[in-house]
Amino acid sequence: MNAAATLDIATLTALAEPNRLRIVELLRDGPRAVGDVAERLAMRQPQASKHLKVLAEAGLVSVRPHAQSRVYQLESGPFRNLETWLDTFSTVWDARLDALEHYLGTIREPKESGDA
Amino acid sequence: MNAAATLDIATLTALAEPNRLRIVELLRDGPRAVGDVAERLAMRQPQASKHLKVLAEAGLVSVRPHAQSRVYQLESGPFRNLETWLDTFSTVWDARLDALEHYLGTIREPKESGDA
DNA sequence: CGCGACTATTCGTATAGGCGTATATTCGTG
DNA sequence: CACGAATATACGCCTATACGAATAGTCGCG
């Protein structure tokens, strides 16, 4: 039911690559064609294409053909989803100290009472 | 200066691993010892230790010794930082269509005035 | 239609990193 | 101080994947 809290790992694996992260940050300033991305980030065209493909498969970017060029732009979905996932941690920071104390208290107890 | 907008890639690489992501989501419910993590996530103790080490080096978790056990808990810093980074994209979605139109218009131009 | 510009794909190579097994280390206890 | 429990580290193996070079595909244009 809470599908909103289920983060797609592909979003993170796509972002967790330096060059791809740079691409995303470049695209933040606006859409770009493949060659444009390659030139600005000083990488070769095939690498740009491959990384953009990975980003596209993760849904982070979309493509729009324009003559021979292909213009890539960011898609909000995965970013919003990631933000939603991050929000599930917001409540943790408040209860953090309390939870630690509590856990240290129960660490002696065997493992009983299956929680969730 | 604006270090807040500079996302540490280590945060993403640490999270972009299924088992580590599961660890983080488990720790969201509260701190856990290594063996506890290993048992709940059905992984072996060394793997749990290694993954927790990576998470710790990325600053996502902190350790607190308790007898022979070591209790790991989430640290808010990287999560907040990631959230701040995500916020830099919020303004993009609004200007998205506009930016695409604009880029398609300038795609013919060689390279207009090197930006920042 | 053939050519040039732009992009995607394929192939081989190198390396990062995850896993399992074994072992070292540390701490509390009697 | 010896022992057991809990954790960390070391080693070898194996897969995923990023890179470079070469090539194939696609589109507009004359």
Summarize the structure.
The structure is a homodimer of 116-residue chains. Chain A has helices at 9-15, 18-27, 34-40, 45-57, 76-106; strands at 32-33, 61-66, 69-74. The first copy, chain A, has 116 residues and is of the alpha+beta class.
Multimeric organization: homodimer
Could you tell me which chain pair has the largest interface and how many residues each side has? A-B, 39 and 38 residues
Average pLDDT over all residues of chain A = 85
**Strand order of the main beta sheet of chain A, please?**
1-3-2
Overview of this protein structure:
Two copies of one chain form a homodimer. Chain A has about 120 residues and is of the alpha+beta class. Helices cover about 60% and strands about 10% of the residues of chain A. Chain A has five helices and three strands; from the N terminus they run H-H-E-H-H-E-E-H. The first copy, chain A, has a three-stranded antiparallel beta sheet. In chain A, helix 1 runs antiparallel to helix 4. The two termini of chain A are about 15 Å apart. The C terminus of chain A is likely disordered. Chains A and B meet through helix 1, strand 1, strand 3 and helix 5 of A and helix 1, strand 1, strand 3 and helix 5 of B. The structure holds a DNA duplex (30 and 30 nucleotides).
Furnish the topology, listing elements before pairings.
The structure is a homodimer of 116-residue chains.
Chain A: H1 9-15, H2 18-27, E1 32-33, H3 34-40, H4 45-57, E2 61-66, E3 69-74, H5 76-106
Antiparallel strand pairs in A: 1-3, 2-3
The first copy, chain A, binds a DNA duplex (30 and 30 nucleotides) through α4.
